[in-house]
Amino acid sequence: MDNILRNHKAVLVFLLPAMLVYVFTVLSPILWSIYFSFFSWDGVSDMVYIGFDNYAKILGGDKTFWKAFSNNLIYVFIIVAMQVFLGLLVAILLTSITKGRELFKTLYFAPAIITSVAIAQLFQNIYSFEPVGILNYCLEQIGLGDWSKPWLSDLEWALTAVSIPEGWRFIGLYMIILYTALLSIPSDIEEAARIDGASSWNLFRSIKMPLIKPVLMVSIIMATTGALKGFDIPYLLTNGGPGRVTELLPTYMYKTAFSSLNFGYGSAMAVFIVIESLIAVAFIRRMMDSKET
Amino acid sequence: MIRYFKWLTLALSLVVLMALVSACGGGTNNSNNTAEAGSGAPANDGQKADKKTYKWFVARGVDGPQAVTVKEIADEFSKTHPEFELVMEGTGDRPSYLQKLRTLIASNEMPAMFDTDSDAYASKLVQEGKLVDMKKVLQDLVKYEDFRPIALQYQQFADGSMYTLPLEFGIEVFWYNIKMFKDLGLETPKTFDEFMKVSETLKKNGITPIAVDGKDKWPVLRYLAYKPFRITGNDFIENVKKGKASFKDPAGMAGIQLVHELGTKGYFQQGFASTDYTAARDLFLAGKTAIYYMGSWETMNFANDKISAEMKDNIGFFRLPMMDGAKTAENDYFINSGIGVAFNQETFDDTMKEFVKFLLEKYPAAYTKKGQFSPFNYALDQAQGMPEIFYKIQDEIAKSGSVFAVPWDTRLDPATNELLGNELIALGLGAHTPDEFAEIMDQAIKENAPKYFK
Description:
The complex is a heterodimer.
Chain A: H1 2-6, H2 8-36, E1 39-40, E2 48-49, H3 53-59, H4 63-96, H5 101-109, H6 116-127, H7 134-141, H8 158-169, H9 171-183, H10 187-195, H11 200-228, H12 232-237, H13 249-258, H14 263-292
Helix pairs in contact in A: 2-14, 3-14, 4-8, 4-9, 4-11, 5-9, 9-11, 10-11, 11-14, 13-14
Chain B: H1 2-38, E1 52-58, H2 65-80, E2 84-90, H3 94-106, E3 113-116, H4 120-127, H5 134-140, H6 149-155, E4 164-165, E5 170-177, H7 178-183, H8 192-204, E6 208-211, H9 218-232, H10 235-240, H11 250-264, H12 277-285, E7 289-295, E8 315-318, E9 335-336, E10 340-343, H13 350-368, H14 388-399, H15 414-428, H16 434-452
Parallel strand pairs in B: 1-2, 1-3, 6-7
Antiparallel strand pairs in B: 3-10, 4-10, 5-7, 5-8, 5-9
Helix pairs in contact in B: 2-13, 9-11, 9-15, 11-16, 15-16
């Protein structure tokens, strides 16, 4: 075995199949999108080469695009906050209990395996105004009837309302990841700190945090890129509406390509999303690294 | 290290090259395959009867009355023509349906039959010579005269050519809750002024006046079109879609103001933007709203045996209101023969022709007996024992006028349509003033229309 691993050519040969799959499923669609983004094409007539016009349109003030972009940033913020920070909180609470740990783990993880369509239906009912949904009903019961509103049709609240289901859904996933990271901290370090008189907060801040930092970083990257390409739940719940208040870049891209039949412009947006995701990942890494020094 | 790096670059570039070559190759292969499959490729060369499979891409659920009727007739046809087989694939939700269909067509896999409105996209397909001339087919089969004239007119493009076959027929009316109107001493409104007054009275008495499906957008789009239709007939939409008229024209502004008022005054149910089709209908049927605008295809759902005890004999309907200076008559309103069926030119062989002929003979009776109104001149008499409301609508259809309003979403180009749907809901919620909305729409048309209308 060692011999094989030492032979780099052999390693490359074994990596090739995965590389091939990657090229076909990831790289080639990206390359095709780049290619299409230089054309104006409606899917029926001939493709017309228009150079960088599609990109010029993005940069030159397609208001809906930038509205979708800023919506997307808010969406990412809410989701990362929920998934990683609530996930971390739940993970910490889990490490501090002994009874019923498995039960809680399973319960919190459950939403992650429910399909998007079911979750969308579920939240449609929760947010519903007429007939009265759970949320509005609860608000009324605790005397906050004035706050009840059609959440998904409300111009101010709709974006938050569509972000929460996606955030809630994967809290369990990040909880498991971070919980495992917390468990892997050697207990002798913890004991030593306690003997030295560290409080729980100090223990967490100075010992646990630095030790789970790599995992935390991966979690933040996963949550961010996941939210940047967020599509299914916003699409199913409000389809970008009312107006454009819940339009995200992926939903706008999809509609531009497949409803407005502007495949070229849609492809240009797809390329933008790829670049945006890469920049986001680089940015997060930079931030986490700089904290270390 | 450098050696391995070279190795890696070489391997990578090879892989990319391979991917490109095979992708291109795949493209050409694909089109060959579809051409074969399209022309009804023989499944087995050895067999005597070559089985030909035709796919119908249906814009409704496959359990809808149109699809079920066609399927029954197709099965009957297969008995005498064993080579023929009709396969159906249905997508109930319209935006998804159109996306799927257009993606199939863009990748050269147009189904043998598919549902489409005679919209700007369909006209592009016609320009590319991809669709069968349905007018000619019906004339050749001497069936053209059997249809209700409006059913055929509705399927036509603005130039009078026709490439889709209608399978349904319906008028659109305002359904209302008779008891609610009676209790408040309200008459059914004859004009839009009365319509607004009725809504106001209902609202004051704690009743939500109108239930509307805002999620699918087209029902709200109808409200935008009412006044322009009364003022100009279909001239406004036919001109504005090409940028020859402006939304700021009096007709356009009248329509925009109506939606703005209905929305911001709370005459539509609260949260209408996210109410879907069945939810809106259920609001009306549960007695929570007084008025619900919808086509006669819902008639059977309003029949006594389908609804709750309180709603029995409690559902009436009134026509599209009138207004001062209206150009269209009282019995002119939205009438349509629904989304039609287009046939792929490539797969329209003799077997398919035979099938269409067979279908046209069997369809009217089979379809009407399901409690539906057919695009053919065909009516059921009282002896057939249909629900009362069915006969009432059947009478109303007989009285309907000869000018009918066209749905705007079948006229505008796809990109403007997409935008209009979103912005219209925002208008109803008060996010735009009427002037802002008119400006947005004019801009969109200026940008998008030239690609579709020359």
